[in-house]
Amino acid sequence: MSRITGPIKEKIGLIGRQILEKTGGSKKKLYAVITAAVIILLIIISAIIRIVSGIAGGGKLPGGMSGRQGGASQQASYTVVRTETPHYGDISVTSSLTGTVEASDVVHITARASGDVTSVDVQAGDYVEAGQLLMTINTNQVESARNSLESAEVSLNSAKNDLSRMQILYDGGDITAQEYETYQNKYKTAQLSYDSAQLSYEKQLSYSEITAPISGRVESIGVDVYDNVNTNAELAVISGEGNQKTTVYVSERIMNALRTGDELKAVKNGKEYSGRITEISTIVDSETGLFKVKAELENNDEIATGSTVKIILTSDRSENVMLVPVDAVYYSGGQSYVYVIEDGTASTRFVEIGLYDDTNAEIKSGLGEDELVVSTWSSNLYEGAKVRLYEDLVAGEATEENAEENSAEKAAGKSEGLPDDRAASKGENSERGQQGGRPSAPDGEVSENKRPAQSNSGLPEQNKAQ
Length: 466
Hints:
Elements: H1 2-23, H2 27-57, H3 68-75, E1 79-81, E2 83-84, E3 87-102, E4 106-110, E5 115-120, E6 127-128, E7 133-138, H4 140-172, H5 177-208, E8 209-211, E9 216-221, E10 228-229, E11 234-240, E12 245-250, H6 252-257, E13 263-268, E14 271-284, E15 291-297, E16 308-325, E17 330-332, E18 335-342, E19 345-356, E20 360-365, E21 373-374, E22 387-389, H7 390-416, H8 420-435, H9 461-465
Parallel strand pairs: 1-22
Antiparallel strand pairs: 2-21, 3-12, 3-16, 4-11, 5-7, 5-10, 6-9, 7-8, 9-11, 12-15, 13-14, 13-16, 14-15, 16-20, 17-18, 18-19, 19-20
Helix pairs in contact: 1-2, 4-5
């Protein structure tokens, strides 16, 4: 640096003297000229510093010399990519639909006779056992049936008494067999009338006393006390025990992809419930024009019967098909293609895509099983683009790092260790000191020919042995 700046200083001094002579000693002109000279000097020094820095950093210099920048531009001429070969597996696509939650067993209880409601013993939400009384209806048929039963009972008792008396007379020979048979027939007729009246009364009584046909939860009560109800009016709804079901309507395409036993999910208020398909109808529903599918839900006591839920189920699937990462597929002009690696360059393969999800895409045609497919998306790829495999690049960097570490360890060993001839000399000098040629140093001191003991930590194995 001094070789460059020395002549520059002498040149500037000479120029200053010449300027002073030409200005005739004017201070203003002299100051202006000096200021301009200083600015020029700073520009020259800055240029020199840049040139020196370029030489030290290996940059591109005048005259065709190239440094690190040339190597960097050469490295940037290829694209680093990840690759993998196609694999075979299953792929499926899900769809979100709307379903309705139903109880596994639902019973709608209706009035079988008209009358006035005299009592209601349960309310919605109650759990009831089979046979438990729900409500009572006072029907006119019950009173009529009771009267008929009582009349039939009187007739039966009368016929029974007459037959008993005729039995005594018949045994004594006072009446003929034909007369005795007449009383027997009267008794049988009275018995049949009584049985019929009793059955009618019990039937009418069951119409009046409404009981639960199954065990379960009372979903709704449709009447209040003192209401007058007609025959077939709905009185209550009971949902049976067990898991609830959901009903969903699907298109023919989705229906063909479904199977009994397939898993699905029901989502309500952000919570998911698992389930399985139990029934797939193959007849088009007349109201919706779709196919009805039923599924049983598990652990869904929190969902009210009749609620609308989001159903997620498999709408299409392919099994044992060729798959590639979905990020490997490119599209242009309505065509799909992938890049494969051939001799360090990218080559285009137009392919037919089937199903795809967030991870994989199905390849129906256009790709070989053993071809190396670029699995990462990059805007720098094109037909014939030069590429380098990420795996090879990482392996190369690891090898360079290991080489640098080994070189550093060897350098550290040379600087800290002792050569064999010096170690031998050290031993001889120690022996001479102990034999009287030169006294050994006391404990804690260092003799002239003996170095302090060094810690073995951080030294190569060969130094530890020495």
